[in-house]
Amino acid sequence: MTAPEPAVVDPTHSLPPHTQVLIAGGGPVGLATAVELGRRGIACVVVEPRRTVSRARPRCKTLNVRTMEHLRRWGLADRLRKHAPLPVSWSQDVVFCTSLAGRELSRFTGVLGLAPDGDRFAEVGQQAPQYVLEDVLRQAVRELPAAGSSSARRSPPSARATTWCPSPSRTTPGNGPS
Question: How far apart are CA 39 and CA 30, in angstroms?
Fold first, then answer.
């Protein structure tokens, strides 16, 4: 199974002058935040310096039960499973050995939420690299309705953001004393 096409963002496309939420970073957390906010109709912009998702170095390997439950709620769990290189049933054990081909010391079965366990959780975990998760989330952000105006943008080398707080009686980053 192949991963979805990575989101390549046009660096010449300008950022909107105003947004309700500016998300710095288009990794799993930033993209998940954009999906959640966009589904609620909250305008947000994700700024990310990477044009494409990196496959050069592995990061995560297993998405836990809670992550998969979020993906299910967003309608993305099946899409992610379709693009995952391994089926859930491939390996549900953790094994400790003296070396790669050495003697087995201990084995834990049915771990990491990869095995169904009655009605404890709505979705089992999934073994998938981070780039698969990021590709699925980038595509989901691009598909959000215009009302959410969520978008992933490649940030220019030196981008600046100014924050504004309508209540001057509160001190927050951006409106505090100079």
Answer: 14
Q: What are the start-end ranges of the E strands in 54-138? A: 62-63, 94-97, 104-108, 126-127
Shared domain for 29 and 113, answered yes or no, is no
For the chain, how many structural domains are there in total?
A: 2
Please tell me whether residues 19 and 78 are part of one structural domain.
no
pLDDT digits (tens, 9 = 90+) for 49-106: 888 888 887 788 889 999 999 999 999 999 999 999 988 878 778 899 999 999 999 9
Range of the domain at 152: 1-58+131-159
Residues 137 and 123 in one domain: no
What is this structure's pTM? 0.74
Report d(CA 103, CA 150) in Å as an integer: 51
Question: Measured between alpha carbons, how far apart are the two ends of the chain, in Å?
Answer: 54
Residue 3 shares a structural domain with residue 39: yes
| Residue 69 CA: distances (Å) to CA of 2, 31, 73, 123 | 23, 16, 6, 6
Using an 8 Å Cβ cutoff, are 137 and 128 in contact? no
Tokens 């994700």 sit on residue:
46
Residues facing residue 151 across a β-bridge: 45
